[in-house]
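Hey, quick one: can you model this chain's 3D structure?
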Amino acid sequence: MSDTITGIITGTIHVGYLFDPLCGWCYGASPAIERLIAQPDIALELMPTGLFAGPGARPMDAGFADYAWSNDQRIARLTGQPFSDAYRHKVLADRTRLFDSGPATLAIVAVARVAPARAFEALKAIQHARYVDGRDITDTAVLGQVLRALDMGEVADRLPAPDEALLAVYRARVETARREMRRLGADGVPSLAVGHAAASRLVRGNALFGSMDMLVAALKAA
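Sure thing. Here's the predicted structure for all 222 residues.
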């Protein structure tokens, strides 16, 4: 059973995708990431940073909700990705739960342990649940429903009470991604780490919002 979080495991250019499932810009970048995964000479690995998990979690107060919605409208204009009224009124208006990416990150790590090639599919479904369906992906019950709809009931069953083995993998993956961000000097997500280990180079996230040809060229030049 592999613990590698990958979208495609063959190819010549290794790209680590540094992201957080609660990052609106990462959601906006998903079409570009999907196209990268489809490139035959690119091997893309999901690297969840846990940026908004643990100490990075925060209350969803009115000020933060307004800031998020304003930012989301910029992302929608730039990328065409939808941010629905259901998301605005059900998710951003909910003051009872933290803005906490820990549960969704754990779900993606759990999928990768049993079906590495489906990790990006799970990420997309989780993002869609939040930004389009207006569902609370900080809730493990909601995440379980999303995964069951993908026929991933085995993974869904583990989320409410994750065992130590899964938690250990989660902590290791998040720390690996954070260490890579620090080493590269990445100031946020989404970002791309191109190449292997200490030889990797940073391609900043703005490259994901322009021409695909220019993005691929930047990856090959990195």
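One thing worth noting: The chain is about 50% helix and 10% strand.
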